[in-house]
Specification:
The chain is an alpha/beta fold. 49% of the residues lie in helices and 13% in strands. It is built from 12 helices and 8 strands. An 8-stranded mixed beta sheet has the order 3-2-4-1-5-6-7-8, sandwiched between helices. Strand 7 and strand 8 (303-305) form a beta hairpin. The longest helix is centred in the first third of the chain and has 18 residues, at 59-76.
Length: 318
């Protein structure tokens, strides 16, 4: 069985469709990069560098990819432009493999000694944070897990209201105290209720203000400390949600949040509506934090577990 051939047909079709705009943009640029050339030379490599940077792969990651292809050209002595897609696919997959991030085959949670598995979700407003929480809760429920939500983004009334809507849509309980409530108190009550009711998973939404990183750091640190009074090793996961359609802005947000708190996993949303899907490759490479989930559509089933091989295969599948 080949490296790129072990994924479900439905998931693969959904991912291919979600990456359509990115692929159209990439292949259009690649075609222009090699026009009039039969082999990969310095001009082609210069053009390829521009293609990858303008596809939001990121400068640092792009330079790594170009160096790998230069080394391959030197080793093979001749590399035809017709082989460029295949070579790019192989080298990007190899680069991401070296990051030592583990790919999950499906939605799952690790064992936590009988305690609820606590996910604290962070990210700026508008990136699809609440929607991701709802879709994630839906996927865990499909697995037969008992899930509870905690509405600790109390800075915006809309955030609490949206999470309540999702809790009703997925038919799972929520702990909320409305706008202006103490986020830490909401998180504490959510974990206490989850523990008492034998929940498997608790997903805590948090405010997404980045105007003052110190305030954000202090707030997230306080939420963590208060949660640990109920479950000592909570949160088990800090999930940063980023909007892939914002390209390099998503990278800047990742830098800010990884400085403000210990992010352990990433979710990239809105891949279906953008030509900036290359940002997934750059973020995965730069931060060495697992990209755990990607959003490739509006349906609840369109939040997928990220697999680097599957993603790269779809990325280069014309």
């Amino acid at each position: 069985m080949g490296l790129f051939n072990f994924f479900s047909k439905d998931k693969k079709e959904s991912l291919d469709k979600g990456l359509e705009k990115t692929k159209e943009s990439l292949f259009s640029k690649l075609a222009k990069a090699v026009v009039g050339k039969s082999s990969v030379d310095d001009d082609v490599l210069d053009n390829l560098e521009e293609v990858l940077v303008t596809s939001d792969v990121g400068v640092g990651t792009t330079l790594k990819i170009i160096k790998r292809i230069e080394a391959r050209v030197g080793r093979d002595k001749y590399l035809g432009t017709s082989e460029l897609n295949k070579v790019l696919k192989e080298e990007i997959a190899a680069l991401l493999s070296e990051n030592n991030t583990v790919d999950l085959a499906e939605f799952s949670i690790p064992e936590t000694n009988g305690m609820p598995y606590v996910i604290m979700v962070v990210g700026v407003n508008g990136v699809g944070k609440t929607t991701t929480i709802g879709k994630l809760a839906y996927q865990f429920k499909l697995m037969g897990k008992k899930v509870m939500l905690g509405a600790a983004d109390t800075f915006r009334a809309a955030a609490v209201d949206q999470l309540i809507i999702w809790s009703k849509r997925v038919d799972i309980p929520i702990v909320e105290k409305g706008m202006k409530a103490d986020p830490s108190a909401v998180a504490y009550d959510a974990l206490k209720a989850a523990k008492e009711q034998g929940m498997d998973v608790v997903i805590i939404d948090t405010a997404g203000r980045l105007h003052n990183k110190l305030d954000l750091m202090n707030e997230l640190s306080k939420i963590k400390r208060v949660m640990q009074k109920v479950i000592p090793d909570a949160p088990h996961e800090v999930l940063l949600v980023l909007d892939a359609s914002t390209g390099q802005n998503a990278v800047e947000q990742a830098r800010a949040f990884t400085k403000a708190t210990e992010v352990t996993a990433l979710a990239l949303t809105k891949l279906d509506g953008t030509a900036k899907g290359g940002v997934v490759i750059g973020i995965s490479d730069e931060f060495k934090i697992p990209v755990k989930y990607i959003g490739v559509g509006e349906k609840m089933e369109d939040l997928q577990v990220f697999n680097k091989y599957e993603f790269v295969d779809s990325f280069f599948n014309q």
